């Protein structure tokens, strides 16, 4: 990302804001596998490629790899976007539904609806990524589905918090013109550190005077929930458009905000 920003003639400050921590002795995965092998799962939703790979790694601790993959081939498989698609193809597991861009849970529901797939009375396993997607689960319950979340890793603050602390104070000191966010969890961690530094309100106030750029809808929603207006959302939701198009739009947006 640093090189991408520099190629677009801007000065980057990259901040390590989170780590993926695999869940050890994962009882959720064991419970999911037992249901899967008993034919008690109708649908599985893969939300991330990293999560799909982590799920297989967790499964292989207790069960044969091929038993798991063969069981997946006998149920309806849905993926949220291109990254889990790559993983499933390597596994030679058929994909029945793929959410279109911007690859949110809303788009999963949309593709199901467009193709006439009803989730009523379906038993749906969902590979989580870092934290529950409660709004998705609530909508599935409303539609009559039974939901089994399968957490395989969680987001954690990095061991070295100096980068986050420095970024919080640099924002307050008006050292940044543009703040780019590439995941919803980043906002949570920035605010968490700002709270520890007793600077949350100052950070939010300072951030509101920068250009806030988001990689996609889920990230934008988290920013808005934190009280920040999103000035730019990448479309499609990828790093290239986020950096290039946001920086092209920055002069006009900043002129209006300052």
Describe the model.
The chain has 12 helices and 10 strands. The chain is an alpha/beta fold. Strand 9, helix 11 and strand 10 form a beta-alpha-beta unit. The protein is elongated and about 60 Å long. The model has no long low-confidence stretch (mean pLDDT 95). Pfam families: HEM4. GO terms for molecular function: uroporphyrinogen-III synthase activity. It comes from Gimesia aquarii.
What is the H/E string?
HEHEHHEHEHEHEEHEHHEHEH
**Shape annotation:** elongated
Helix content: 40-55%
CATH topology of the largest domain: Rossmann fold
> How many H/I helical runs?
12
Distance from first to last alpha carbon: 27 Å
Q: Quick one: CATH class of the largest domain? A: Alpha Beta
Uncertain residue ranges:
none
Strand order of the largest sheet: 4-3-2-5-6
Q: What class do helices, strands and sheet pairing give?
A: alpha/beta
Instruction: Give the overall pLDDT as a whole number.
Output: 95
């Amino acid at each position: 990302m640093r090189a991408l920003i520099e190629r677009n003639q801007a000065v980057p400050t990259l901040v390590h804001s989170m780590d993926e921590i695999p869940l050890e002795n994962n009882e959720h995965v064991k419970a999911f596998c037992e249901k899967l092998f008993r034919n008690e799962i109708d649908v599985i939703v893969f939300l991330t490629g990293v999560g799909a790979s982590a799920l297989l790694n967790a499964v292989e601790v207790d069960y044969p790899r091929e038993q798991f993959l063969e069981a997946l081939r006998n149920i309806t498989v849905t993926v949220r976007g291109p990254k889990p698609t790559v993983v499933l193809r390597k596994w030679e597991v058929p994909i029945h539904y793929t959410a279109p861009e911007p690859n949110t849970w809303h788009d999963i529901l949309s593709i199901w609806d467009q193709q006439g797939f009803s989730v009523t009375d379906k038993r749906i396993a969902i590979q989580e990524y870092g934290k529950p997607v409660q709004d998705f689960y609530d909508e599935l319950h409303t539609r009559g589905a039974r939901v089994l979340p399968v957490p395989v890793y969680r987001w954690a603050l990095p061991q070295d918090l100096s980068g986050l602390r420095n970024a919080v104070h640099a924002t307050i000191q008006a050292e940044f013109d543009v703040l780019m966010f590439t995941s919803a969890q980043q906002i949570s961690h920035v605010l968490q550190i700002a709270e520890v530094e007793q600077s949350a309100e100052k950070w939010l106030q300072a951030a509101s005077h920068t250009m806030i750029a988001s990689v996609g809808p889920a990230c934008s929603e988290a920013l808005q929930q934190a009280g920040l207006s999103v000035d730019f959302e990448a479309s499609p939701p990828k790093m290239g458009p986020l950096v290039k198009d946001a920086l092209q739009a920055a002069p006009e947006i900043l002129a209006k905000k300052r």
